[in-house]
Structure formats: C-alpha cells, structure tokens
Design brief:
Chain A: It holds the Pfam family OmpA. Chain A: This is Peptidoglycan-associated lipoprotein. The structure holds two protein chains of two kinds. Chain A is α+β, with helices and mostly antiparallel strands. Chain A has a single domain, classed as OmpA-like domain (60s Ribosomal Protein L30, Chain: A, 2-Layer Sandwich), CATH 3.30.1330.60. Chain A has a four-stranded mixed beta sheet. Chain B has two domains: 121 residues, Rossmann fold (3-Layer(aba) Sandwich); 262 residues, Neuraminidase, CATH 2.120.10.30. Chain B is 11% helix and 45% strand. Chain B has four helices and 31 strands. The longest helix of chain B is centred in the middle third of the chain and has 17 residues. Chain B starts with a helix and ends with a strand. Classes of the chains: A alpha+beta, B mainly beta. At the A-B interface, helix 5 and strand 3 of A face strand 27 of B.
C-alpha cells in the first residue's frame, strides 16, 4: 500500500477540522489523540439508526463509521447514506487515504451464506461511495460474515448490532 | 483392518499436535432414543482377568448407546462375566432381558494385542459371529470402535460409523480477544487434537475423501483464504489468496478437485479447483449470491445455496452442461445443502416459523421433514453410514454440537465444557 490506512480518529479529526472551519487534515498524532471519542449510540430495536443528523455535528459525536442493516438485506438506510456522503466528501479531498470496509452478519442463517451477505453489505457501502465520486481503488472490502460479532447475545438487540459494515 | 490400525498408529505417534485433554471434550446427553432399543450386554473384556489400559467393553457399550438403538445392560446388574462363548449361561442373560451379548478376551503376543470377540443372540441361543481384531497397546480405543462397528452392522444391517472422526471449530475469549481452534476428535469426542490455533476466524472445515486431509477457511492473513492441511504431518498449504471471498471448500468424491466460492469477479460465484493442475474453473454465473457448494456422490453435479430467486434456496448444477435446477421451494430460507450417502436425501438448514432447524428433503418424493427442535441449528454433517447427522446449535448463548438420526428417532447433545463449538464435519471414513 502506497498510502496510509484511514483510521477511526482520522475521520474524527476531519470532523473537528470541519466544525472549526479549518482546512487542514488530521495527522497521525491527532488520530491517536482522538480515539477516546464516544462511540455511536445505536438503538437496539428491530431497526438500528445512528445519530448522523446535522445537529449531531455540533455535539462531540462524530460521523457514523458503522452502518446497520436489516436481516438478509444489504440496503443502506437514510442515516447511513447521510453519513456516507460526509465520508465521501472527505475521501475525495484526501485521495491518498485508503479505507477498509468490513461487512458482518448476525448469527442467524448459515455461515458461508453470511460471508456472502457481509460482502454484499460492504459492497453496498463501497458502491454508494463510488456513486458519490470516491475512487474505487482506495477501498478494500472484507467480509467477516457472522464470525466477528460486535455483541455476543442470541437476541434481537445483539443481532441488530451485528448486521453491520465497519469503516476502518 | 491391520492396515487401518497402522494408519491410526501413525497419527497417534506424531508429535506435531498439541494434546489438549478435556479442552472441549464432550459429555453426551441422550435426549431421545427409539421406543424399544435393543437390549445388549457387553461384560468386561480383559486379558485373563487383568484390566486393559482402556475399558474396551465400556467404550463399546457407550458407542452402542449413543446410536440410540441400543440399551446396554449396566455392568453391576450382570450375574456373570463370560469371556468366551463356552462360558455363557444363557439363563443369566435371559433373566436380565438381554437380547444380545458380546463376549471377548485379549491375548498379548510381543507387545501386540488380539481381541477375539463374539456376538451371541440370547433369544435364539446362537452365535452370530466370532471375529478378531489386532492392535498395539495404544489402540484399544480403535479396537473397541471396530468391535462396535461389527456388532452394530450385524444387528442393524447398517455399517457402523464408530471408527470415524469429527472435525470442528471452537471459539472462546482468551486475553481479551477470541481464540479460534480447528479440532479433530473421535466420533465419540475422545482423543481431541488441535490442528490450528488462531486469533482470527477459522471456518468451514471439510474432509478429503480418504480422510487424511482437511480444507478450511482461515483469516490469519487478515483476509479469508482457503488452506489445506494433512492430519498425519500437520503440513499446511494456502490454496487461495484472491480479493474478496475465498470460502466454502468442498472436496470432490474422487479427491482431485475442490469446489469453492470466490468473489474476485465481483460477486460470489462457485469455482472448481483442480488440485493437480492448479486451474480454477468458474461454474456459476449469476449476479446473486452463489455459495456453499457440495458434490453429489457421483461427482458430476454440485448442490449449492443461491438467492437468485429472491431468498436463499438450494439448487443443483450439472457441471458438464452448466444446467441449473432449483431443488427447494418450501419456506423462505433453505441453505448449506449436504447429501446423505444415498444421494437422495437432501440435508439442509431450513427456516421454519422464523426458527432455523435441520431438515431433510427426499429428492424423489419432495417430502420435507424438520428433524430438530433446538435453537439456531446449522452446519449439518451426515455420518458416512447415513444413519445420523451432527449439527451445531445453541444452548443459552453457547454453541454446542448435537446429533439426530435421519429418521429423527434419536437425538442427543454433546455439550462442551467451555467455549463455543461449531461447524462439525464428520469424516467420510
């Protein structure tokens, strides 16, 4: 890889820069200093959402880097699309940064089918970013299927958290 | 038989494996047996009254009980311990209601052991057979499973599968991250050995037809890749390293090819991989998910999961012609197909009223039958004799293995002591 990987913190630095009206990019030092930012709040009902509205940007939350899906579906919800548009702008402004899109599924259904489903979800995110003008070459898609759950329980709340794509 | 035991010996002698006694060793809880199991007695098999390093008759007794078709007579109820047919008093066994009796004795000759064993039908008062099995001092378990196979086949007419093995994956938290292990044990859960340990996921173990190798998916490179590993030496080889999915390997019945899934061309497609020429050949072409290929016994077709019809369903592909035929229509989720050795009974994961269970479908009559009522059932794997299948299920939040007979008459759980156990693969021999 000729370029560095985009880190969680880099995005957060970007948002901080955006909010302060500053046009500089986040350095690695900024990134490491920013990793203690609070994580996204997620509702645990049947449909998950992220706080990505404009007002959120005025708080100390960052733009969502985890995008949630319904069972056996790979359709991006409105919140995810809004967050991804912000990511797309930043990525276009920083074409040297590579990202990794990790697709996941909940534990229901078969493991290899869920590998394919996780990839389909990550491809949805990738394709949306391409539509928004991001260079396909900076994105790598990896599916973990149901093998790397974010929440361990066998219940709807955990499943909702596990049907996701993580941007790294 | 001596050739077979020689192979087993070479396996047990290798030092490449970490022995992990009792790490995930199973305790078997039979939850359902047949209504009238055959009553059988297996008095102690000894060397002129001296106990053996392994309790052979107890191993045989457990094997037969685990099949669900037999009810072994408890040793403490026995009135005599005959070792040969001559020592059998039929009256002793008729009183106990025993229909069959297995007697045996061990003779040692220069460090080798020979068990001479007989199956006696008590009701008819006749000897069904007398056979011998030979082995070294570390092979009493193998000899016991061989005796179980012979007794089971003589009484049921179906070859036994007690001498087979099972591969599976375990996962448990260790030092703040998940620890994955690829394991192999005897079919009864004993003699568990670790083939691979990784902090990245391990998936989809599948046997070579001669049961000497496994293929599986490991994320150890940071991406899913297919590996091949020889059991006798532990030697491994990475077979694929494509962008995207590298998954669901399945060994062809002739041992020459793998079927597998790659998404390097944009979406998941099924390929065959020639292990000699190293050539990949794409056999599906559809924008939907095509995955979980498994060979038909004749090696001419693949059954696989696809959502090309809108939901995951099972299809059959004739490799030579490329013709695809849909096999399942009942329900909104049928996936990960396997065929029983008869080539006619399709085994799969089936969603039934929102719950995932193991089901069979008769490919001739179309009859669908849900075999399990446990929770989040997946990864069915059929014994080489077609009598039982193992699958993965959940007890609470814990992954365990369970077994069910293909007629659904016998059910048992194999809970591990700790950690998640998943993805059983029953050895083909």
């Amino acid at each position: 890889m000729k370029t560095q990987l985009l880190k969680y913190g880099a995005i957060i630095s970007f948002m901080a820069a955006l909010l302060s009206g500053c046009s500089t990019t986040g350095s690695d030092e900024d990134a490491s200093a920013s990793t203690t930012m609070p994580s996204q709040s997620v509702t645990t009902g049947t449909v998950s959402t992220q706080d990505v509205s404009g007002t959120t940007l005025g708080t100390d939350s960052a733009v969502a880097r985890v995008f949630y899906f319904e069972f056996d579906k790979a359709v991006l919800n409105a919140e995810s699309r809004a967050a991804l548009r912000l990511h797309a702008e930043w990525l276009k402004a920083h074409p040297a940064v590579n990202i990794r899109l990790e697709g996941h599924a909940d534990e229901r259904g078969t493991r290899e089918y869920n590998m394919a489903l996780g990839e389909r979800r990550a491809n949805s995110v990738r394709d949306f970013l391409i539509q928004e003008g991001v260079n396909a070459a900076v994105m790598e898609v990896i599916s973990y299927g149901e093998e790397s759950p974010a929440a361990m329980g066998s219940n709807e709340a955990s499943w909702a958290l596990n049907r996701r794509v993580e941007m790294k | 038989m001596s050739k077979k035991l020689g192979l087993v010996l070479s396996l047990t002698l290798t030092t490449l494996f970490w022995l992990t006694p009792a790490a995930a060793e199973f305790t078997i809880e039979i939850t359902q047996g047949v209504d009238n199991p055959t009553r059988i007695a297996i008095p102690p098999i000894t060397q002129s009254g001296r106990a053996l390093p392994e309790d052979v008759s107890n191993i045989v007794s457990n094997d037969l009980q685990r099949s669900g078709l037999f009810s072994p007579i408890p040793r403490q109820n026995m009135l005599s311990f005959p070792a040969t047919i001559k020592e059998v008093y039929y009256r002793d066994w008729r009183i106990l209601g025993s229909e069959y009796l297995v007697v045996g004795q061990v003779v040692e000759n220069a460090g080798r052991y020979r068990i001479t064993f007989s199956l006696v039908e008590i009701t008819g008062g006749r000897t069904v057979f007398t056979k011998v099995v030979d082995g070294g001092s570390t092979q009493f378990r193998d000899m016991a499973h061989y005796i179980s196979d012979q007794v089971y086949e003589a009484i049921t007419g179906i070859p036994g599968a007690f001498s087979t093995r099972v591969a599976y994956v375990t996962a448990y938290p260790k030092n703040g991250s998940m620890n994955f292990r690829l394991m192999v044990s005897d079919a009864d859960g004993h003699r568990e050995r670790m083939l691979l340990e990784s902090r990245q996921p391990i998936m989809s173990p599948a046997w070579s037809p001669d049961a000497s190798e496994l293929v599986y998916v490991s994320f150890e490179t940071g991406r899913p890749a297919i590996f091949r590993q020889r059991l006798a030496t532990g030697a491994r080889e990475q077979l694929t390293n494509f962008k995207g999915l590298n998954g669901a390997p399945s060994w062809s019945p002739d041992g020459r090819k793998l079927a597998l899934v790659l998404s390097k061309d944009g979406n998941p497609e099924i390929y065959t991989f020639d292990l000699t020429t190293r050539q990949f050949s794409r056999v599906t072409s559809h924008f939907a998910i095509d995955t979980e290929p498994n060979w038909t016994p004749d090696g001419k077709s693949l059954i696989f999961t696809s959502d090309r019809g809108g939901t995951p369903q099972i299809y059959k592909l004739a490799i030579a012609s490329g013709r695809v035929e849909r096999l399942t229509f009942a329900g909104s989720y049928n996936a990960r197909p396997r065929l029983a050795p008869d080539g006619r009974t399709l085994v799969m994961v089936h969603r039934d009223n929102g719950n995932f269970h193991i089901a069979t479908q008769d490919l001739v009559t179309g009859d669908l039958r849900v075999l399990t009522q446990t929770y989040l059932d997946e990864s069915p794997t059929v014994a080489p004799n077609g009598a039982m299948l193992l699958y993965a299920t959940k007890q609470g939040d814990k992954g365990v293995l369970a077994a069910v007979s293909l007629d659904a008459g016998v059910k048992f759980l194999l809970p591990a002591r700790f950690g998640d156990v998943r993805e059983p693969a029953w050895s083909p021999k």
